[in-house]
């Protein structure tokens, strides 16, 4: 997810060439209070124009209670191209209920929860209150909530955490968010790498996030996107192994066998499920899945 400041015309134009999976036009933190109306107008014109970005079209509105959220939603939801709304400071299920009510009132049938292309909501978890109530938040959304996102800087400010390069102080909230998201069938989106010029720092963060179970990562600069894509896409070796696991497990399952050995490793149902997840990610990334025959995996 690449954030694009709603008031920065140069960045807005560059977003059309971005390979990001999702481009979020920001009306919140990157826009000063005096520029909110202008940024809202500019973004709405873009989202209703002839051109659109390659990835998912998202808008980050202002948080519920700021006084800006009503105009943001009522304007953005009427545009042609908007596919998702990032809801900052999703501290309570009522915040999602309010947004869903506006979707029901303003969006066409295809963008409703039971439509062909439901409008997606990304709940941004940014406070101790949100983390304590994260299960109730994950249950809300009435079919529109698609992902939970960890907003580290606001979370640190709210809790009084000093963020370090090692990020050990953030292991608990990040793991809690991933676990909750997966329990409710939602995607989990990891924190921003604020050192956007440090490629190695970004790679380390991406690898760590992937190991923790995150599905993707936020970006604040176009140069971060390729590194994030590479880190969150499985390697060719991992894809090949997953394909071998799928074929061999399904073959052994038909023969009534439980666990078995493949390439010197024990394979069972959990490993099979992990393999299917790798293949799902590979297909989403447009990677080729090798053709594996049963003869290739016979002992």
From TrEMBL:
It comes from the Eukaryota. Keywords: Kinase, Magnesium, Metal-binding, Pyruvate, Transferase. The keyword Zinc-finger does not apply. The keyword Metal-binding applies. Substrate binds at residues 60, 126. Residues 1-222 form the HpcH/HpaI aldolase/citrate lyase domain. One of its GO terms (molecular function) is kinase activity. InterPro entries: Aldolase/citrate-lyase_domain (IPR005000), Citrate_lyase_beta/mcl1/mcl2 (IPR011206), Pyrv/PenolPyrv_kinase-like_dom (IPR015813), Pyrv_kinase-like_dom_sf (IPR040442). Mg(2+) binds at residues 126, 154. Its cofactor is Mg(2+). One of its GO terms (biological process) is oxaloacetate metabolic process. Pfam families: HpcH_HpaI. This is Pyruvate/Phosphoenolpyruvate kinase-like domain-containing protein. The lineage of its organism: Eukaryota, Fungi, Dikarya, Basidiomycota, Agaricomycotina.
């Amino acid at each position: 997810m690449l954030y694009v400041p709603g008031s920065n015309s140069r960045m807005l134009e560059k977003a059309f060439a971005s390979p990001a999976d999702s481009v979020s036009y920001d009306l919140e933190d990157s826009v000063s209070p005096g520029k909110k109306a202008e940024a809202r107008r500019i973004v709405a014109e873009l989202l209703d124009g002839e051109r659109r970005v390659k990835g998912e079209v998202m808008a980050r509105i202002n948080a519920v209670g700021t006084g800006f959220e009503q105009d943001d939603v009522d304007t953005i939801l009427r545009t042609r191209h908007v596919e998702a709304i990032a809801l900052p400071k999703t501290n309570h299920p009522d915040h999602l209920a309010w947004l869903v009510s506006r979707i029901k009132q303003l969006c066409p049938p295809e963008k409703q929860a039971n439509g062909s292309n439901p409008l997606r909501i990304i709940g941004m978890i940014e406070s101790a209150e949100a983390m304590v109530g994260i299960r109730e938040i994950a249950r809300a959304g009435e079919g529109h909530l698609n992902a939970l996102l960890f907003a580290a800087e606001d979370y640190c400010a709210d809790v009084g955490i000093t963020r370090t390069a090692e990020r050990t102080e953030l292991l608990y909230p990040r793991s809690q968010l991933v676990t909750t998201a997966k329990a409710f069938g939602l995607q989990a989106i990891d924190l921003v790498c604020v050192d956007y010029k440090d490629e190695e720092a970004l790679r380390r963060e991406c690898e760590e996030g992937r190991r923790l179970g995150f599905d993707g990562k936020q970006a604040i600069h176009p140069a971060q996107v390729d590194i994030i894509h590479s880190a969150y896409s499985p390697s060719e070796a991992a894809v090949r192994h997953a394909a071998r696991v799928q074929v061999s497990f399904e073959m052994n399952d038909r023969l009534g066998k439980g666990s078995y050995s493949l390439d010197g490793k024990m394979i069972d149902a959990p490993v099979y499920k992990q393999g299917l997840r790798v293949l799902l990610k590979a297909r989403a990334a447009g990677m080729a899945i090798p053709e594996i025959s049963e003869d290739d995996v016979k002992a």
